[in-house]
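Journal club side-thread
Mid-discussion, someone asked how the predicted structure for our own chain would compare to the paper's figures. Pasting it here so we can look after the session.
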Amino acid sequence: MAPPSSPTPGLRRGAWLIVLLALAAMLAALGALAWRQLDAARQAQARSAAADRQRLEALEERVDALRRDVRAHTARMQQGEATQRLLREEVIGLGQRAALLEQSVQRLANPELDAARALRLDEIELLLSQGQQRLLLSGDADGARRAYALAATLLEGVPDPGWLDLRQALAQERAALDALGDDPRAVAAGRLDAVAAALPSLPREPAAEPAPASWWERMMGGLVEVRPSSQALALDPADRAAGLAALQLELTLAQGAIARGDREGLRAALDRVEGWMLRLWPASPARERQREALRALRGQPLSPQLPTLGSTLEQLRRQRGPG
């Protein structure tokens, strides 16, 4: 009996080709399935991120709305507090006016009070005018305060409620006058006195050592001495005495300008004082400090800065009318 014949090589190769094609198809199917799953996961993640962004934006919008509400409530509360404070002040003012009106009804029944009130208003006007002139002409802040205090005492005795606004204006002007600092003229005079007191202690010798002289300067030094004209000092005793007398005169003129309130005259006198300082004392840190003090003194005001000064007097004259 003959043995069975083996498959031909062509059939074996076809079988292996079919198997490889089947494996390739399976791998392609698996890859497509994995890609679809990965794409679905990415889309789901993108949708989740978009939803998170929407929720975050909505949350931020709610927070902004809450902040706007808080600001609006705060503004309404502040406005309410301001309104309550204004109403409280108006109620207090109305109470004061009602009390003054009641007093005026009780006191003005006597016709003799009209002449007494006119005389008292004349005294008040005189005191206010004196206080204003004391402050402007002589810088006497204490005298002005005393005059205004007497005027306020007299004004309290005027029973007419129509003068309540004048009382309030006088109270404001007195408060500004009490807050006023020292007399500017006294401050300027004190600073000038400090400079004048420091001048005698300035060093009379140059602070820095001169540079070594050259051979020709040493040879000619016994015959000729050369100094720059800008640094010429009054070394001769007679010249120095005359310079000190002129400096003292300029300091006196500066004090007079301060007493008069003459700012231009003060600046001119201080310029001359500085010129004599340069002639009488050599350059030194102490001299420069005194020059800086003089420059600061040039800008010192010589009259009190009180914008409300005289406002009560003007209101009193307007309220009393002509005559």
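Post-session note: The two ends are 166 Å apart (CA to CA).
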